[in-house]
Amino acid sequence: MLPKTFSNDQNLLLNGDIMKQLKDLFEDKSAIIKIKEKLPDLFHLAELESSRAGKIGMEVGVVRERIIVAMMINFFGKKVVETEIATTKAEIDVIIFKKPISIKTITGNLSGVKLIWTVDWDKAKEFQQEYKPSCDMIFIQIVWGKAGGIFLFLKEAQQKILSAIGREKYIKLPSRGTNPRGVEISKEALQKLTEHKSTKMIEIDWIKKDIDFNPYKRWLEYWREK
Known about the structure:
The protein is built from nine helices and eleven strands.
């Protein structure tokens, strides 16, 4: 059942109140309690599932993204959450009430958040010159053992900060001649986004609980089925 402030009524698409539904997620008391309780456990499981020999693989980002999308489906319902996104829409991870949303996660300090993955310097430079934020962003900062949070950065705030500080300060390019993994949002840009007056935020205490996790259990159960 949805918290009383939420609705999956398609008529919201006609009255211009679409973003209010997403903003309410960051203000509804029952939703906040649930997110604060469950997100650390789910992200811990994502790390365990994506680890090998004690090292977390890059696939953890995909698992985290699915956790956030599942959270949206839980709160808003399947009818208004679109998950089948064309690969040409690189910045979009989910669509809610017909509103495209990007999902970004980071562990630790405000840096290293990828906008695109590329090893081509010319493409990276071209991206810096042409990039314009095209959707709102759900950003999660994970700081195990400390406080972090889940944020909602509006598209308009991203665009204003990009314009205010300039592309060279907003977008961090890899060092030329290295083997980079992508183009990032700068630490300065992320800091300004977290502090922007339109940004919504739920503070999360990132505490790891002891979890008895066996990566093969699920698959073993399938094999044992008759």
